Each structure stands twice: as C-alpha cells, then as structure tokens.
Amino acid sequence: MEINKNKGETIGLVPTMGALHDGHLALISFAYKFCDVVVVSIFVNPTQFNNASDLEKYPRHIEKDAAFLKKHNSKTLVFTPNVEEVYADGLKSESYNFGSIVDFMEGEFRAGHFDGVGSVLKRLFTIVDPDKAFFGEKDYQQLMAVKKLVTITGQKVEIIGCPTNRNEFGLAQSSRNFRLNDTQLKQAELIFEALTQARSMFDDYSILDIEKEVKKRFQQSALELEYFSIVKTKDLIPTTTKEPKEAYRGFIAAFLGDVRLIDNMALN
C-alpha cells in the first residue's frame, strides 16, 4: 500500500466478512469509480457477534471467495488476516460513544455489536491505511456508525455509502441469504415488499398506521418480525410524528427460521 501511496494512487477498502455475492461486486465496482486500487478484506470479526451460534454458523468460504473475485474482478487485492493479526493486543472490543445512532434497532437488539464493528474497522483502517472505505446502505445504521467512528478516532478515511444491491424481486443481497432455501428466499421478499408499502403510504398516512399495516403483513407470514422502525434519517431515532422537510427511513429486522435478515429504505 505504501508503494501505491507513493505513486499518488488512491486506495479504497471494501471490508467484508466473506461469503461474497453480487452485492459485494457492486460495492467493489462502485469503489473503482473513486479509487485506483481497491482492497477487499475478508475477516469474520468475532467481537461484533452477540450470539455465539450466529458466529459459528456464519458462512466461511475463503478459497471460494478468492476464486469469485478473481473471476469477476482480477485486479482487486484481497486481504485475509487472521484474528492474531487484527487483534494483536488481544481479542477485545473497545467502547465508543456513537450517540443516538446506535441506541435503537441493531444497537438495541444486538448489544455490543457496534463497538465490535468499530474495534475491527479501527484496526483494518490502521493496517490497510485506505483513503476511502465503502459500505452498503443495506447496513445503513452501520454506515452512520462508521462515519461517526472516524470522527472519534481521527483516522483520515473518507466513508462512502453505496446503494443497496437487490435481486430481481427486491431482496437485499446478503451473505445470510446463502443459508436460505428456495422457498425461504421467496418468503424473504416480504421484507422489501413491506418497506415499499411503507414508502408508498408515507405521504398520506400516519406513522402509527404504517407500522400497524407492516406488522399485520408479518403476522400473516412465515417471518418473525423483530422490529419495524421509522426513524429520522439524521439521528436514527424512532418517531411516531412527521415534520416538514425532515427525511425518514424505515428499518426492518426479521427471522426466517434461524436466519436473521435486515433491510431499510428511504421513505421520502
């Protein structure tokens, strides 16, 4: 990386936990619009899992991922550190004051998750030393937290969000989709459909009415809704009232069997 920097090249980092898919390819292609060199890190970070079973079941296919990248984008650099390399000072999670952006939704239901994300990214940013780092808007709350992280740590990394990549039926691309069978993949389309319905209702209905309709759809489905929240985009605080000129997003987390899926969408 130092050689590239000395040549004046812009370095981009796409941090992943592997199980690469078309959504990652879209993120990498997006990164090349801004950067001369793109590094994809593959590291399943233990400190961001609040559920040991979820960590154990997370798909790990390093060789398959490397072949996938070579086939679709051979010039991309791949960084696959081990735990000792990333957590040279011991496997521990640091604590960060992210403010209100992590108080609800994922922060509420996955205790310590964002501290774990911050801990690994701080280290990856130090090791790779990128000029820019790229994150998908599917994990919008994470994107906001990472932007806050670099203001806390003072690291000179520009954080850039990439639009959510979806399949032809609207389902957000996710590594967890690999754990779903064909029937479940079809059932999971409800998440996108519910968010789309919330967006279509947003101008004419109250937030409480929208929440009621979305929850009703899940009650009649194979999915178990963990949360549906409408929040102000600027601070990610759930609200039941709408204010003029304010931007809002809808967020969903739901279980399909033992697979947890999340998604979100701008509502106005």
From TrEMBL:
GO CC term, one of those recorded: cytosol
EC number: 6.3.2.1
Molecular function (Gene Ontology), one example: ATP binding
UniProt pathway: Cofactor biosynthesis; (R)-pantothenate biosynthesis; (R)-pantothenate from (R)-pantoate and beta-alanine: step 1/1
Class in the EC hierarchy, top level: ligase
Binding site for beta-alanine: 48
Catalytically driven reaction(s): (R)-pantoate + beta-alanine + ATP = (R)-pantothenate + AMP + diphosphate + H(+)
List of residues binding (R)-pantoate: 48, 142
Superkingdom assignment: Bacteria
Gene Ontology BP annotations: pantothenate biosynthetic process
Active site: 24
Annotated positions binding ATP: 17-24, 136-139, 173-176
Subcellular location: Cytoplasm
Additional information: The reaction proceeds by a bi uni uni bi ping pong mechanism.
Recorded family membership: Belongs to the pantothenate synthetase family.
Quaternary structure annotation from Swiss-Prot or TrEMBL: Homodimer.
Protein name: Pantothenate synthetase
Species of origin: Psychroflexus gondwanensis ACAM 44
